[in-house]
Design brief:
This protein folds into five domains: 184 residues, Rossmann fold (3-Layer(aba) Sandwich), CATH 3.40.50.300; 73 residues, Arc Repressor Mutant, subunit A (Orthogonal Bundle), CATH 1.10.10.160; 168 residues, Rossmann fold (3-Layer(aba) Sandwich), CATH 3.40.50.300; 152 residues, Orthogonal Bundle (PCRA, domain 4), CATH 1.10.486; 60 residues, Thrombin, subunit H (Beta Barrel), CATH 2.40.10. Helix content is 45%, strand content 15%. The chain contains 29 helices and 22 strands. A seven-stranded parallel beta sheet has the order 11-12-10-13-14-9-17, sandwiched between helices.
């Protein structure tokens, strides 16, 4: 008899129960840091060794190729034999494998090609062109989102109900044209892989029986992230044996914006009435206080499957709460704490700064650069390296200097104006022959009527746009120049039309460029504000991120942080309208997903967790007085250590002012009642002081601007 005891070595009771479940539908609710990957690999090893199941009859689905490779390596180590014949991979990878085996039955060419996202976008643009639709009014990215979202729900163009709405009719027409182009050229996009694989099994009874018989056991990781078509595919394959073993956590379902259906895991027990459910609640990552705070937040969501994380380790430090005056104060505080961490022997690589909006990274990047502290933006680009920011800066560069060929070529067709490569090649050739700039070559060729009517009209309009922008840049301050550029170029309007999460992020980044201009101070007096700002942006982009092997601080959005862990975590920008995001506040379902996102962020922390919010935040080009996030009010006061509280905050961050006598230490020569003046707010009277040292603040009642709290170190007050 084979000894299988090694499969259960080191597992806790709940993990053992999950691994050794009898065949049948099973739901493993695996909390953050509860060892779900180990349970999945041990379950497969148990099926093979304990239940004598052939690896060829097992289908294991993960959400990344990296996770699939890691699982396969672990299983082979446990079994001591290779399991190459097992079907293990991502939904897309497995669907691709199935379609390659049965391309004829699926109605595909033998050598069908896969379209990545960029290639799909190009084909959609071709469909628009063939339908004579102007991309300025029908953005390709919006249509891409429309097509993919319908495919993920299992709907082809012909299956969508006709409507009298002209916009809907047009979108359906583009979808149909796009399908025809894909069929003509033997192309398959990522969403099509899933839909075509599902249709193959659903519509072909022979293959349906074959694969239902073959895959006796199906295991799925991150089940809370499955979309409609993935779930339909799974339930179809498992119809014969009903041995569906899913692992997931409804509290970590944060990808609704890209099609994930949390309902799949919430309704699993109804869809499979004989389901056995096991909860993995012991956390091996975070301290007790971090888990207690995270539990308190997520418990506010309704309709949960229910679980409560706990740890056998100690409680650790309380969760720290910092109330900043503004976003710069918040960033300085974070960087100061990281300095303390590093000076105490901690690694920068074990530090993460998390934020809800990618645009928030800019202020942290600036202060990290000033501090000479290496960092990486995980899963994304630094602020000034992002495509939409480079586009915006190219408009400013070309308006400032018409001879900038690089800027010209970058934006001449961004947003799309119908200026093709053939036309641009003619201009390049003319410029090269005449030894002039592309701008001058374009002007000459326009004067000579060298272009076809459509190209002539488009290039002429572009030249006029840049000249108008140049006029608008005169005699305005830097923020106004940036705002004028965003309006005249239509860049902001263009990205606002893209309703996807990526379109929203690009819109926020462009709006944040205005904030960057407001914060910017000219360093080179020989350059004007705009030239100095453009030089600053180029130098920052050229700095380059730290290499992956370097000990550097990690910056990332909360969505990017899922699955990662760090000893020291800063969860920033906890303000109403930012986190939770304004778009989610009025929609209960989306608000609950925001709360799950907060829970995910908090449970990334292993040892130390800092939460922060600002009273005033300049973001997306606007300065706003903010309210603390409702998520902060959901954490009991006993779990928080308030580093600096304010009069304006409520709940866990109530007032903790110091004696007015402390003002002598904070601002020598000033006292309560002193008449002062401020460069922006004008004259006022000092009313109060709170805190001590570098984070002390003073309250000044200004005659024109009202009462303001100012950080004493940066208050810039003068006695009248």
């Amino acid at each position: 008899m084979v000894d299988v005891s090694h499969i259960f070595d080191g597992l806790n009771d709940a993990q053992r129960d999950a691994v050794a479940l009898e065949p049948g539908p099973a739901l493993i609710i695996a909390g953050a840091g509860s060892g779900k990957t180990r349970v999945l690999t041990s379950r497969i090893a148990w099926l093979v060794e304990g239940l004598n199941t052939s690896p060829l009859s097992i289908l294991a689905v993960t959400f990344t190729n990296k996770a699939a490779r890691e699982m396969q390596n672990r299983i082979e180590q446990m079994l001591g034999v290779p399991v190459g014949g097992m079907w293990m991979g991502t939904f897309h990878g497995l669907a691709h494998r199935l379609l390659r085996h049965h391309h004829e039955e699926a109605g595909l060419q033998k050598d069908f090609q896969i379209l990545d996202s960029d290639d799909q976008l190009r084909l959609i643009k071709r469909a628009l062109k063939e339908l004579a639709l102007d991309e300025a009014y029908w953005p390709a990215k919006q249509i891409q989102w429309f097509i993919n979202s319908h495919k993920e729900e299992g709907r082809r163009a012909a299956q969508i109900a006709q409507t009298q709405d002209l916009q809907q009719q047009t979108l359906l027409g583009v979808y149909e044209k796009y399908e025809n182009l894909c069929h003509r050229f033997g192309l398959v996009d990522f969403s099509e892989l899933l839909l075509r694989a599902y249709e193959l099994i659903r519509n072909n009874e022979v293959l349906q029986q074959r694969y239902q018989q073959r895959f006796q056991h199906i295991l799925v990781d991150e089940f809370q992230d499955t979309n409609s078509i993935q779930y339909e595919w799974l339930t179809l394959l498992v119809a014969k044996h009903k041995n569906l073993f899913v692992v997931g956590d409804d509290d970590q379902s944060i990808y609704g914006w890209r099609g994930a259906k949390v309902e799949n895991i919430l309704q699993f027990e109804k869809d499979f009435p004989t389901t056995r459910t096991v909860r993995l609640e012991q956390n091996y990552r975070s301290t007790g206080n971090i888990l207690a705070a995270a539990n308190a937040v997520i418990e506010q969501n309704s309709g949960r499957l229910g679980k409560k994380l706990w740890t056998a380790d100690d409680d650790g430090d309380p969760v720290q709460l910092y109330t900043a005056y503004n976003e710069s104060d918040e960033a300085r505080f974070v960087i100061d704490r990281i300095h303390d961490w590093v000076n105490g022997g901690g690694e920068r690589a074990q530090t993460a700064i998390l934020y809800r909006s990618n645009a928030q990274s800019r202020v942290f990047e600036e202060i990290l650069l000033d501090a000479g502290m290496p960092y990486r933006v995980y899963g994304g680009l630094r602020f000034f390296e992002r495509a939409e920011i480079k586009d915006a800066l190219a408009y400013l560069r070309l308006a400032s200097s018409h001879d900038n060929d690089v800027a010209f070529e970058r934006i001449v067709n961004t947003p799309t104006r119908g200026i093709g490569n053939t036309t641009l090649e003619k201009v390049r050739t003319h410029a090269q022959v005449q030894q002039i700039s592309i701008w001058d070559a374009t002007r000459q060729m326009l004067a000579q009527k060298s272009f076809a009517a459509r190209a002539h009209s488009a290039l002429d309009a572009f030249i006029e746009l840049i000249e108008e922008l140049g006029l608008q840049l005169e005699d305005q301050d830097l923020p106004a120049q940036i705002s004028a550029m965003l309006e005249i170029s239509s860049l902001l309007e263009h990205h606002k039309k893209d309703k996807s999460e990526r379109g929203q992020a690009r819109t926020e980044n462009l709006e944040e460029l205005v904030s960057a201009a407001r914060h910017f101070s000219v360093e080179d007096e020989d350059l004007g504000p705009l030239s100095s700002f453009l030089s600053h942006a180029a130098l920052e982009a050229g700095e380059g991120q730290a290499e992956e092997w370097e000990d550097c601080v990690q910056l990332m959005s909360l969505h990017s942080a899922k699955g990662l862990e760090f000893n020291l975590v800063f969860l920033t920008g906890l303000e109403e309208g930012l986190f939770p995001h304004q778009r989610s506040i009025d929609e209960p379902g989306r608000l609950e997903e925001e709360r799950r996102l907060c829970y995910v962020g908090m449970t990334r922390a292993m040892k130390h967790l800092y939460l922060s919010h600002a009273e005033v935040r300049r973001l997306y080009g606007q300065e706003k007085y903010t309210s603390p996030s409702r998520f902060l009010d959901e954490i009991p006061e006993a779990m928080l250590n308030v580093i600096r509280a304010t009069r304006q905050s409520e709940g866990p961050a109530q007032a903790a002012t110091s004696s007015p006598a402390a003002l002598a230490d904070t601002l020598p020569g000033f006292g309560v009642g002193t008449l002062v003046t401020h460069p922006k707010f004008g004259e006022g009277v000092i009313m109060n002081v709170e805190g001590q040292g570098e984070y002390a603040r003073v309250q000044v009642n200004f005659s024109s601007a009202g009462s303001k709290w100012l950080v004493s170190a940066y208050a810039n007050l003068s006695a009248v």
